[in-house]
């Protein structure tokens, strides 16, 4: 009973043309009965189809100029230093200090601005933010670098400056000093 219902549905789903019927009778293979494997007749035969690939000539010069530079550029040459932006190259002779400051790949000092939430302002009920300058890439005696930096900044700015040293990462956080004053210190040391 169930097999006859399946056979009727299979035959109703799949329309067999007269040409297929003629081919099935003319073939010498033994005829397969639909009820033996109904799914073979219900599903269409799977043929492997591969996508066609066509190569198109493209002018990649427009894309290449947007790609990042793979090689670190050379130190730029200027007629006079410091430049208009305040940049200057490191000194040729390395300073005889117990610490060293590594520059970034783009030949700038590794100084970063960090904003931290500070105390709650009771009048406006809003948080104040403290701006910290983070000096990264300090090798050697980080505490000696922090001491020299703090004494330079306090004499330059005429007020106390808060600092924090992270010896494992080679970082110094400075609160209460502008970035330009910190740059001035490291440029004066020859870094």
Features:
191 residues, alpha+beta, Translation Initiation Factor Eif1, 4-stranded antiparallel β-sheet, two-stranded antiparallel sheet, 6 helices, 6 strands, 30% helix, 19% strand, Large ribosomal subunit protein mL49, ribosomal protein, ribonucleoprotein, Ribosomal_mL49
**Strand order, largest beta sheet:** 2-3-6-5
Main sheet properties: 4 strands, antiparallel
CATH class of the domain at 99-189: Alpha Beta
Would you give the CATH topology of the domain at 99-189? Translation Initiation Factor Eif1
The average pLDDT value, as a whole number, equals 82
How would you describe the shape? elongated
Structure overview:
With 191 residues, this protein is α+β, with helices and mostly antiparallel strands. Among the domains are: 2-42, no CATH class; 99-189, 2-Layer Sandwich (Translation Initiation Factor Eif1). It is 30% helix and 19% strand. The protein contains six helices and six strands; from the N terminus they run ααααββββαββα. The protein has helices at residues 2-13, 18-26, 38-42, 61-64, 142-157, 179-189; strands at 99-101, 111-121, 126-135, 138-140, 162-166, 171-175. It has a four-stranded antiparallel sheet. It has a two-stranded antiparallel ribbon with strand order 1-4. A hairpin with a 4-residue loop joins strand 2 and strand 3. Mean pLDDT is 82; it is low at 13-19.
